[in-house]
C-alpha cells in the first residue's frame, strides 16, 4: 500500500493486486505499539487506515490472485486466473504466511481447534484453556492478548528461552493465568473421542513426555514467504525469500520487492513501509530511462 501511494503521487498508472485482505499479517495482530505516530492500535485498524489512504488518492485495487510473473524484457506480464496485465514495473510485496509444525493431527484440527490468528479466533476461547506454540514476538504478543480472554494460556517454546522483545515478555509474564514451558518440542496434537482438541503431547527439556490440556491451540513457529508466482524469475534464495539490494532491486531489471517477502534482518510494519517507498523511488529512476 505504501508503494501504491508513492507511485500514485508520482503520477504513475498503478494497480495493487490483492488475493485476500489488504494489510497482510498486521490484520491478524491484536495490538501494535511500535509504529511511529500510533501509541497503540489494532493491526486491523492500522491496515484499514492505510487502505483508506491508498484508495483516497485513487490507487486501483484489484482483488485477484497472481499466479505468474513473466519477464519479457522491457515489459512484464502479471498473470491471474482472470486476466494478464502488461506493465513496465513490478513490485513484489506478497509478504509471508504462517509456517506449520507438521505433526500428527495438525491437518485434522486446522481451523477446528488450531488457529494462526488470535484476534480472529481468540474470542471463541473465552473462559477456556488455550495453548500457544512459539516464543517469538508474534507468539508472546498474541499469548498476552489471549490471556485477557482465556481461563489459562500455556506457552510452549522449543528453545531454552523466549526470543520476543523484552517489553513483550514483561507484559506476558505479568499475566497471572499464563504458564510458560521452555525447551519443549510438540510431538502431536491429542484428540478427544469426538475428534475435537484435547491438548498437545510434548517432550520436555528433561526428556519426559507430557500432555498439556487445551481446548484450542495457536501456532507461531515462523513464516513462509509467498513467492510461488515469481519462482520462474530466479529472484529468490534457497528459503524462498526475494533477494534485493539497498534499492529494492531484484536481479531482474524492472522487478522490485518490498516488505516481509524480502531476505532481510527485521520484519516490522515500519521496515515494510520503508521498503515500499524505496522501491518506488528507484522504479521512478528506472522509468526515466524510457523517456
Looking at this protein, list some descriptive labels.
2 domains; FAD/NAD(P)-binding domain; 3-stranded antiparallel beta sheet; 7 helices; 26% strand; 5-stranded parallel beta sheet; 17 strands
Write a structural description.
There is one protein chain. The chain has seven helices and 17 strands. The protein is an alpha/beta fold and 291 residues long. It has two domains: 162 residues, 3-Layer(bba) Sandwich (FAD/NAD(P)-binding domain); 120 residues, FAD/NAD(P)-binding domain (3-Layer(bba) Sandwich), CATH 3.50.50.60. It has a five-stranded parallel beta sheet with strand order 8-15-9-10-11, with helices on one face. A three-stranded antiparallel beta sheet has the order 3-4-5, with no helix packed on it. It has a three-stranded antiparallel beta sheet with strand order 12-13-14, with no helix packed on it. The two termini are 26 Å apart.
